[in-house]
Design goal:
Layout lengths: L2 H6 L2 H34 L3 H19 L2 H8 L1 H18 L6 H15 L2 H12 L2 H33 L1 H9 L1 H12 L11 H7 L15 H4 L3 H32 L3 H31 L4 H16 L11 H29 L5 H30 L3 H21 L9 H8 L1
């Protein structure tokens, strides 16, 4: 650790550690079903279309939760709402163990999605509260890498537990992890101005962009936020490409099993490789834009430049269905997940770049809702395409081009001068 870091203080990085572990647990819980899909489908006779509807139930609940969770976070604070969210999704994770058909799994996934909808709005809000703009993308990349670590850890837990005790216990054990996290979160997390352990020098460092005064008069409805072109751009970008990550998460194990003959015992190593690359991608993507900012490039340019690089790195996945090599298959999926997480680190941070802190969770929820709607439609689309054609060609072609389309939308709609929107402007626009 540098002398400068010691002088300023590093308590904010402990906050990132808490966010990282919450996101890790979040992805362990949602990854279990994808890992066990071949087992459960055979055991309970669930079809491809049925599995698609189960995934859609998760996405629909995730979208529904995002309708209100952001405003709850902005109103009641990150500490309480995050704890409630993780309690809901942890209980839902455990309840997968008692499901006996597609409807039962759909219900369990619904409540899992409802609880998990609070994770990223809470984490992005906490990052905006605890970091200056120049560090937010890096901090976001670090906590968001928990999604990949969760996807890496999940195969190790799920494989061992399933082979020894059965797939039901895999859901129960992973579902209990969230309650352990809560014992650390509740006593440790406070706002910077309320934290007794925060040095004055670090408080000033965190607020170097200026202290934002939050007032109850600055409540802005989604309809008012949509009057800003930037809101439309971010929401459209999330709608177009968020589903691709869900596709890799829920269908990659099945794809490798059916096209490359990878069984459950070997699947864990394939997924460890894939999501290890994804973890590095989240940090690399956030680090790239932060590096460009430190070089003196404008914030808006730095975010978009990093995202363009990530969008181009996803394109090669279009050739995946024609590959007969397991090495090539794993390499292309790894590259795509690496790029997606680099993209995610920056698109999450765009919200706190363009909007005041007291609107960050609300706007993150709005954008997340649009991404989830795209995910709901895509999950059913993917399931039915596979049911009808038995081929992944159309799916991978669409996934490979989605990020470039989303990047163009950001270019069109986001202000290129990095203008920061103000809540009062939306209120005036409404009047």
């Amino acid at each position: 650790m540098s002398v400068a870091s010691l002088k300023v203080g590093n308590y904010r990085w402990r906050v990132v550690a808490l966010l990282f572990f919450a996101t890790t647990i979040n992805y362990i819980d949602r990854q279990v079903l994808g890992m066990l899909k071949p087992f459960i489908a055979d055991d309970l006779m669930i079809s491809e279309a049925g599995y698609g509807y189960i995934v859609s139930a998760f996405q629909a609940a995730y979208a529904l939760g995002l309708l209100f969770v952001g405003r709850l976070i902005d109103k009641y604070g990150t500490r309480v709402t995050y704890a409630i969210s993780i309690a809901i999704w942890s209980l839902a994770g455990c309840f997968h163990a008692v499901a006996r058909n597609a409807f039962g799994f759909g219900m369990a996934r619904f409540f899992l999605g409802l609880g998990e909808s609070g994770n990223f709005p809470s984490a992005v809000k906490a990052t905006a509260e605890w970091f200056p703009k120049k560090e937010r993308a890096l901090a976001t990349g670090i906590f968001n890498s928990g999604s990949n670590i969760g996807a890496v850890v999940a195969p190790l837990i799920v494989t061992g537990v399933t082979l020894k005790w059965g797939w039901q216990w895999a859901f129960i054990i992973t579902g209990m992890l969230g309650f352990i996290w809560m014992f650390f979160w509740l006593p440790m997390y406070k706002l910077p101005k309320q934290s007794p352990k925060l040095k004055p020098s670090e408080f000033d460092y965190i607020n170097q962009d200026g202290v934002e005064v939050e007032t109850k008069k600055e409540k802005v409805a989604w309809g008012q936020l949509l009057k800003f072109k930037g809101t439309i751009g971010i929401c459209l970008a999330r709608f177009v490409c968020d589903w691709v990550w869900w596709f890799f998460l829920f269908w990659a194990p099945d794809f490798l099993n059916k096209t490359q003959g990878v069984d459950l015992q070997h699947m864990q190593w394939a997924l460890i490789i894939i999501y290890s690359f994804a973890a590095f991608g989240g940090i690399a993507g956030g680090g790239l834009s932060s590096w460009l900012i430190k070089l003196g490039r404008p914030v808006a340019f730095s975010r978009k430049a990093a995202m363009l690089v990530c969008a181009l790195l996803v394109v090669p996945v279009v050739i995946l269905p024609s590959s007969k090599s397991i090495v090539v298959a794993i390499a292309l999926i790894s590259l795509a997940t690496f790029a997606h997480q680099g993209w995610a680190s920056n698109i999450y941070t765009l919200v706190s770049d363009y909007y005041p802190k007291n609107l960050v969770a609300t706007l993150t929820s709005l954008a997340g809702f649009c991404g989830s709607v795209g995910g709901v439609l895509a999950a059913s689309f993917v399931g039915n395409i596979l049911e009808i054609t038995g081929s992944y060609f159309v799916v991978f072609l669409t996934a490979g081009l989605a990020y470039l389309v989303a990047w163009l939308m950001l270019q069109i709609f986001l202000p290129r001068n990095g203008q920061v929107y103000k809540a009062e402007d939306a209120v005036k626009a409404e009047q």
